[in-house]
Write a structure and sequence with these properties.
- This is YceI family protein.
- The protein has about 170 residues and is mostly beta strands.
Length: about 170
């Protein structure tokens, strides 16, 4: 196994959620640390850990970002990080895996599953070997204590429950 660190300059942790039951709001986190200890050609048995800085949330709207940092949602002051620690990786195809682990948000830990695809390996212009992975999963925000919402006059709610999480990761040897 080889140890890799995620290159944040060439990676993204994103999310989307239904807004007013008709559209989607997208966002990302700009600051995070992640390590992967694995044989990149076979992720089974890999050690994967993520630590995301909640304060780095960005939805391209400062007021919304501040509200998401508040106690109504992530409560970044009391719970400054979102973490994920993989505990089961099942190979589903040649370069496809199902990754399950413990996701912690706002002090609540629940299992979460991501579909992950190995994108391949290359050498960057500086001679450093890099690997890439893509992933996506979905969690219900209420399972993590993110329950704030507002009822709409037309019926329904302002913020959907299901959060789609997307990962585009490039990693360098540690």
């Amino acid at each position: 196994m080889k140890k890799w660190t995620v290159d944040a300059a060439h990676s993204e942790i994103g999310f989307s959620v239904k807004h007013m039951m008709v559209s989607k709001v997208k966002g990302s986190f700009a600051s995070y640390d992640a390590t992967v200890e694995a044989d990149e050609t076979d992720l089974q048995g890999a050690l994967i850990d993520f630590k995301v800085d909640v304060a780095s949330i960005n939805t391209n709207n400062e007021d919304r970002d501040n509200h998401l940092r508040s106690a109504d949602f992530f409560d970044a002051e009391q719970h400054p990080h979102i973490t994920f620690n993989a505990n089961e990786i099942v190979k589903k195809g040649d370069d496809e895996y199902e990754l399950t682990g413990d996701l912690t948000m706002k002090g609540v830990t629940r299992p979460a599953t991501f579909d992950v695809e190995y994108g391949g390996k290359g050498v960057n212009p500086w001679g450093v070997e890099v690997v890439a992975f893509s992933g996506e999963g979905k969690v219900n925000r209420k399972d993590f204590g993110l329950t704030w919402n507002q009822t709409l006059e037309t019926g329904g709610v302002l913020v959907g429950e299901d959060i789609k999480i997307t990962l585009e990761l490039q990693a360098n040897p540690a």
